[in-house]
UniProtKB/TrEMBL annotation:
The keyword Ribonucleoprotein does not apply. It comes from Musa acuminata subsp. malaccensis. This is (wild Malaysian banana) hypothetical protein. One of its GO terms (cellular component) is membrane. PANTHER family: HYDROPHOBIC PROTEIN OSR8 (PTHR21659:SF115), HYDROPHOBIC PROTEIN RCI2 LOW TEMPERATURE AND SALT RESPONSIVE PROTEIN LTI6 -RELATED (PTHR21659). It is found in: Membrane.
């Protein structure tokens, strides 16, 4: 439990310095969240930070990831 909080704290700190890197560490390179964060950071640094922190703290994609890999039968 404390390890997850520590990782989240470090991801937020990295996201403040370089927003796409923090999202990359959490979601990976070819995710939709990473592409949106990269685009927002290119268009403006502050919107990239806001989106990165929002995605890391508020959005939980864990239930959606497991539903893709469940067998149909």
């Amino acid at each position: 439990m404390a390890s997850e909080r520590c990782c989240l704290f470090l991801e937020i700190l990295i996201s403040i310095i370089l927003p796409p890197l923090g999202v990359f560490l959490h979601y990976g390179c070819c995710s939709l969240e990473f592409c949106i964060c990269l685009l927002l950071t290119i268009l403006g640094y502050i919107p990239g930070i806001i989106y990165a922190i929002y995605v890391l703290v508020a959005v939980d994609h864990q239930p959606y990831r497991t539903s893709y890999y469940e067998p149909l039968a």
